[in-house]
Design goal:
221 residues, 29% strand, 9-stranded mixed sheet, alpha+beta, two-stranded antiparallel ribbon, 13 strands
Length: 221
Amino acid sequence: MSDKSLRFLADTNNSNPPTSPNPVKLSRRAFVAGLPLLMAGCAGGYGTVTDGGFPVRGVDTSNINPEMLRTEVAWKGNEKPGNVVVNIPERHLYLVMAGGRAMRYGVGVGRSEGVNFRGYAVVGRKEKWPHWTPTENMMTHIPRYRKFAGGMNGGPDNPLGPRALYLYKDGRDTHFRLHGTIEPETIGQAVSSGCIRLFNQDIIDLYDRVPLGAHVTVIQA
């Protein structure tokens, strides 16, 4: 999590807009023609949805580097379908698919090389709207996290977002996760305490595709 990741989403209490004395009427044809423009900012599966009773806010993709958006690409590696490769320098996560293809996702990574996981792990656990507990190392470096030493329940203000995949090695929890974020603007940056963060819409997509036991390779350089 980044230093500002615990800020809560501000409540938006928009007042009713003033009524125009001469309201403009749109024909059905004009509305349909303009709909792609209205939806463009949250296109490609990044719109607002409700999941498990919680809102997942849409991402304004017009302000996002296209390289960070989910897309299917060619894959030339030796990994089996269902396995995951995280390339830290690229800021990309690849889910290997059949037929020489992969689904590529933009990610946020650890703020320094030393805090990033490297090497091999497996997905040992998967959680929807996961509970979050800061590690002792996080609380040492960011003292205000100590008030969450007992953990935070899942929900739209939880730094892990709507899904988390827990990385295990030799049967033990590494304390590294693939998870969502309440800071979509940080995708593509090095800001976290070491975990790999994705857009909330992307971690939901990845969660549904990746089985327990899938191999995860994290490339540092």
